[in-house]
Amino acid sequence: SENTQYTRYAVAYNTEADSSGSNTDSVYTLISVPTLQYQGSKTSSSITILASQPVNGGELYFDCEGDCDTNLNTWTTTNSANVTGLTNNTGYTFRVKARNNDNIETSYSTDLNIYTHAPIPTLTAGPLSTTSISLSGTGVQNLSAGDSGIFFDCTIEECDTGIQDWVKSTTDVAINLQPNSEYSFRVKARNYT
């Protein structure tokens, strides 16, 4: 059984007699490499990960590659970790290892790659011309990664020319607008998938 203490001693014997017993020695059996999974809780700045629980009081050590070790890098008996202070729309690689009650460590688990959510971008408009308006959506990191993107939309009919496509930049231009008219726009982001 994993992480179970066994105590042994030795007795020598021959055809004449048995010796006295030696001192006892106790050791714990090894522990399995834990598995790691995404717990389904993440924001634009945090991710919660979950590991298989080590048996019989074993401990876990969560790790993240890069600048993402908030609430990590310490031995714990808790099988989840909430990593905070992360950058939005950014991929992070996590792993975990375990140790038994004799402090013998396993190797690390298979890596788990997770992206934080993209936040709601901040929309600004300008510069203007008589028939176009430049739109800007800011606050989303790593737009060039995977399927990440910004989507600009006009909330009234017939003003989506030049926009209405996912773009990998923070700006886009609505064109063919009517001079001296009022328009309303919105923006959304899509994070890496």
Question: What's this model, at a glance?
Answer:
With 193 residues, the protein is mostly beta strands. Helices cover 0% and strands 39% of the residues. The strands form five sheets. Strands 6-5-8-9 form a four-stranded antiparallel beta sheet, with no helix packed on it. A three-stranded antiparallel beta sheet has the order 3-4-7, with no helix packed on it.
Task: Explain how this protein is built.
A 4-stranded antiparallel β-sheet has the order 6-5-8-9, with no helix packed on it. Strands 3-4-7 form a 3-stranded antiparallel β-sheet, with no helix packed on it. Strands 10-11-13 form a 3-stranded antiparallel β-sheet, with no helix packed on it. The chain is mainly beta and 193 residues long. The chain is built from no helices and 14 strands. The model has no long low-confidence stretch (mean pLDDT 91). It is rod-shaped.
Give the topology.
Blueprint: E1 5-8, E2 25-28, E3 36-42, E4 47-51, E5 59-65, E6 75-76, E7 80-83, E8 91-99, E9 112-115, E10 122-128, E11 133-138, E12 149-154, E13 171-174, E14 185-190
Antiparallel strand pairs: 1-2, 3-4, 4-7, 5-6, 5-8, 8-9, 10-11, 11-13, 12-14
Taking pLDDT < 50 over at least 5 consecutive residues as the criterion, the unreliable ranges are none
How many DSSP E strands?
14
**Radius of gyration over C-alpha positions, nearest whole angstrom:** 29 Å
| Largest sheet: spatial strand order | 6-5-8-9
β content, as a range?
35-45%
Question: How far apart, in Å, are the first and last alpha carbons?
Answer: 40 Å
- Number of helical segments? 0
Could you tell me the mean pLDDT? 91
Proportion of residues in helical segments:
under 10%
Summarize the biggest pleated sheet.
4 strands, antiparallel
What would you call the structural class?
Answer: mainly beta
Helix and strand run: EEEEEEEEEEEEEE
